[in-house]
Design goal:
Low-confidence stretches: none
Strand content: 25-35%
CATH architecture: Roll
CATH class: Alpha Beta
InterPro entries: NTF2-like_dom_sf (IPR032710), SEC_C_motif (IPR004027), YchJ-like_M (IPR048469)
Bound molecules: zinc ion
CATH topology: Nuclear Transport Factor 2, Chain: A
Structural class: alpha+beta
Number of domains: 1
Shape: globular
Helix content: 10-25%
Protein name: Zinc chelation protein SecC
Pfam families: SEC-C, YchJ_M-like
Distance between the termini: 25 Å
Mean pLDDT: 96
């Protein structure tokens, strides 16, 4: 088993996988966010739908999510801000780095989460301007190397 996609440094089978398999529930919005990022990498579309707030699902379907999993070429996840939740509401700001041609760009989003009957759900996100990874930036894959010596 390799390290979890979410960059926690833990093994996948003790991190995001138990959540995806329904053997555990996320204890915090950050944990849910991490598991959803891993689900995008793994193509776990059913889990993505299952953890999407029913009130904001709109036209999000498993097929739509499966397509975005296939199209995404994620390199790493960076949690920018994960304040403690206020009651049943929580927020996480993250950058999800992905490869596009020769570049690595970040989807930068501040996401809202809601807890319903003890389970956290992703409600919506406010997208921030796209960021391009610099050659001398730390590589988002978590290797500890500069991007130009690693994934870029
Ligand atoms: Zn994980
Ligand atoms: Zn790298």
């Amino acid at each position: 088993m390799s390290h979890c996609h979410c960059g926690s440094g833990r093994q996948f089978d003790c991190c995001c996988q138990p959540l995806q398999l329904g053997k555990a529930v996320a204890a915090s919005p950050e944990q849910l966010m991490r598991s959803r990022y891993s689900a995008f990498v793994e193509g776990a579309a059913a889990y993505l739908l299952d953890t999407h707030d029913p009130d904001t699902r709109d036209d999000v379907t498993e097929a739509v999510l499966a397509r975005s999993c296939e199209e995404s070429r994620f390199v790493g996840l960076q949690i920018v801000d994960a304040p403690p939740p206020k009651g049943e509401q929580g927020e996480v700001e993250f950058r999800a780095w992905y490869r596009q041609g020769e570049d690595i760009l970040a989807l930068w989003e501040r996401s809202q989460f809601r807890r319903l009957e003890g389970r956290w759900f992703y409600s919506r996100g406010e997208i921030r301007p796209a960021v391009k990874l610099g050659r001398n930036d730390p590589c988002p894959c978590g290797s500890g190397k500069k991007a130009k010596r690693c994934c870029l």
